[in-house]
Write a structure and sequence with these properties.
heterodimer; A: about 120 residues; mainly beta; seven-stranded mixed β-sheet; four-stranded antiparallel β-sheet; about 50% strand; B: about 110 residues; six-stranded mixed β-sheet; about 0% helix
């Protein structure tokens, strides 16, 4: 068990560029979550997948954001036409089953800086 | 709507002293409650969770938390703090009708004085 991994760990981009982040969950986990964390705040839910199906999207996820989980394994989060307000830590988490009591295991995050 | 409040943004305690971090939640039914710890450069790590049964739950690293329904609270405690406990602590709530997503408080930063 290597835990949840995220790539890249840091990304600096210019405003208007597109960026894509990858998350590899723990291999047998069915659920995969994306959260965003800004400085001095707790993580905020963005979206989650049950296997390959995207089941919910927060209204924080504007139409510039898209997430996929092809084949129910790794997931990608893409931000198009980045804005300075997108600067944040993007966290991925996975859990084994669909009980809300199930522990979510978090990755180390991808820190995005938009200049 | 569900919400979580951590009233203390920053707490400083002396090493060896006791610790209590406050968490209040707003939710209509019985929630699932969690405490996570985040160290610089590290991912969030689960300390403990409550979803039913005994209202006093034990976690890792010597932490415990007590669920008090009447006060809508889930405070985190530790009898003797170690310097390595310095970190950011987050309380979170989940629910059956929320698909497993967690609502987090804004966090409490803990500093430990030698």
């Amino acid at each position: 068990d290597t835990g949840v991994s995220q790539d890249p760990r840091h990304k600096i981009t210019k405003r208007g560029q597109n960026v894509t982040f990858r998350c590899d969950p723990i291999s047998e986990h069915n659920r995969l979550y994306w959260y965003r964390q800004t400085l001095g705040q707790g993580p905020e839910f963005l979206t989650y997948f049950q296997n390959e199906a995207q089941l919910e999207k927060s209204r924080l996820l504007s139409d510039r954001f898209s997430a996929e989980r092809p084949k129910g394994s790794f997931s990608t989060l893409e931000i198009q036409r980045t804005e300075q307000g997108d600067s944040a830590m993007y966290l991925c988490a996975s859990s084994l089953a669909d009980s809300p009591a199930d522990e979510q295991y978090f990755g180390p995050g991808t820190r995005l800086t938009v200049t | 709507a569900q919400s979580v409040t951590q009233p203390d943004i920053h707490i400083t305690v002396s090493e060896g002293a006791s610790l209590e971090l406050r968490c209040n939640y707003s939710y209509g039914a019985t929630p699932y409650l969690f405490w996570y710890v985040q160290s610089p450069g590290q991912g969030l790590q689960l300390l403990l969770k409550y979803f039913s049964g005994d209202t006093l739950v034990q976690g890792i690293k010597g932490f415990e938390a007590e669920f008090k329904r009447s006060q809508s609270s889930f405070n985190l405690r530790k009898p003797s703090v170690h310097w390595s406990d310095a970190a950011e602590y987050f309380c979170a709530v989940g629910a059956d009708n929320q698909g497993g997503k967690l609502i987090f408080g804004q966090g409490t930063e803990l500093s430990v004085k030698p």
